[in-house]
Amino acid sequence: MCAASSPVAGRDGLAVLDAEQIRRALTRIAHEILERTHGGAGIILLGIPTRGVPLARRLAARIGEFERLDVPCGSLDVTMHRDDLRLHPARALGRTDLPPGGVDGMTVVLVDDVLYSGRTVRAALDALNDLGRPRAVQLAVLVDRGHRELPIRADYVGKNLPTSQREVVHVLLTEVDGQDGVTISGEGGRP
Amino acid sequence: MKRHLISAADLSRADALLILDTAEELASLADRPIKKLPTLRGRTVVNLFYEDSTRTRISFEAAAKRLSADVINFSAKGSSVAKGESLKDTALTLEAMGADAVVIRHGASGAAHRLAGWVQGSVLNAGDGTHEHPTQALLDAFTIRRRLKGTGARGAALDGLRVTIVGDVLHSRVARSNVLLLSTLGAEVTLAAPPTLLPLAVGSWPCEVSYDLDSELPKSDVVMMLRVQQERMNAAYFPSVREYSRRYGLDAARMARLPGHAIVMHPGPMNRGVEIAAEVADSVRSTIVEQVANGVTTRMAALYLLLGGMEFPATEVAQ
């Protein structure tokens, strides 16, 4: 949510990850999740709309391939829990879609495209709190661009990307944007 | 979205769909262990009710509370209104108390519009005289969409659906708001009523008019029955309740003429045996109980979209 993204802007920026590198990063994260959760028992992947959701689905598919596990996968909209609601006109809500079992007693892995200030993840933790009591919560992101404003860190990172706060990171995913790629626009670039 | 919700005509097609889609997301809240969101924490919603109401007031109260707003209920009975305080003075009192939104039900058409000129917060019209009741139209549109297009129908409008609104259109704010909103959403609306219960200007409304209910039923996807508003009737609009019921009441025989998928709606409160037979009201086609549940969800969506974001820029307040 911290990365503004439109395919047009994406093409202008400097490519940081291409489709192949995204694929490899997700494969590695899937293996790391399996390793850290001792084979993936009791995990549930929740993507944060918009682009966290297809990422969570891709991770679930890979974990399914590697371990023949059927990993529950859903989405968690954090809009109603954001701390910046009053800074913008009211936003349309994304979807919250929990797998039938719910989150109680599960290890929830939150999935998002870019980790920046940490405020989206803070909102996600609050939203999750209202849905049940997971055994543990972990965080997987495709890109960690730094500049945290809250004491939050990711458990699984596709790529650490040192940025300036004036730069803009765009994540493009086939399901949403028609192509895969991560680009960064230069300082003073597009808002 | 505009700052106030006074008329269904204030809503563009995009606004109406945004409210319905937001309501669709909020509907899942009812299945969760904690049916509350922190979104409107610290905001105050005043329910200003000059007319009797059960479901609308409770529905707005539940909606505001589920969004964590503080709710102040005001009913004209037992307040300073009984001592002769004017609407404007009451409004200024609420303004001084810092109301972020005022939900108003009033017996005079246009009361919500007047109030909007006096207070800074958002005004939501919960029924003004025989004028409008926009949140009822929204919850009706939401109910129609859920029943006929499925619960996953995000972004879908009501294009091509045929809605027949039957009965006391003259005194009905529900009918006017529904005609405006449903036609904005693409539905084809027909009013079926005795000529005496149709407003004079009905020719300028975006709908068809028919005096014969029986010919409309076989081509209706939705039949919306209106309450015969005895309390607003100060003239003889029809010879007898029995005759009205025979020509415009929905009984089991008439319901059988509807297409298989058609639904029967009623905004409540019902006069069983007058405009709707008990067996119809309790049938599987009836959405009357769903309409109440959907009312809370739809009003949450409206409150969130009006109050959840940035404050609207201050406009000059009329004197």
Give an account of the 3D structure.
The complex is a heterodimer of chains A (191) and B (319). Helix content of chain A is 30%, strand content 24%. Chain A has 191 residues and is α/β, with parallel strands linked by helices. Chain A has a domain at 20-84 and 101-166: Rossmann fold. The radius of gyration of chain A is 16 Å and the shape is globular. Mean pLDDT of chain A is 91; it is low at 1-10. In chain B, the strands form 2 sheets. Chain B has a 5-stranded parallel beta sheet with strand order 7-6-5-8-9, with helices on one face. Chain B has a 4-stranded parallel beta sheet with strand order 2-1-3-4. In chain B, strand 3 (101-106), helix 4 and strand 4 (122-128) form a beta-alpha-beta unit. The longest helix of chain B is centred in the last third of the chain and has 20 residues, at 288-307. Chain B is globular and about 55 Å long. The mean pLDDT of chain B is 92. Chain A binds chain B through residues 77, 80-81, 85-96, 126, 130-132, and chain B through 1, 18, 21-22, 25-26, 28, 32-34, 36-39, 304-311.
What's the SSE blueprint?
The complex is a heterodimer of chains A (191) and B (319).
Chain A: H1 7-12, E1 14-17, H2 19-36, E2 43-47, H3 52-67, E3 73-75, E4 107-115, H4 119-131, E5 136-144, E6 156-160, E7 168-172, H5 174-177, E8 181-185
Parallel strand pairs in A: 2-3, 2-4, 4-5, 5-6
Antiparallel strand pairs in A: 1-8, 7-8
Chain B: H1 13-27, E1 44-49, H2 55-66, E2 70-75, H3 87-96, E3 101-106, H4 111-116, E4 122-128, H5 134-149, E5 162-166, H6 173-184, E6 188-192, E7 208-210, H7 213-216, E8 222-225, H8 241-248, H9 252-255, E9 263-265, H10 278-281, H11 288-307
Parallel strand pairs in B: 1-2, 1-3, 3-4, 5-6, 5-8, 6-7, 8-9
Helix pairs in contact in B: 1-5, 1-11, 2-11, 5-6, 5-11
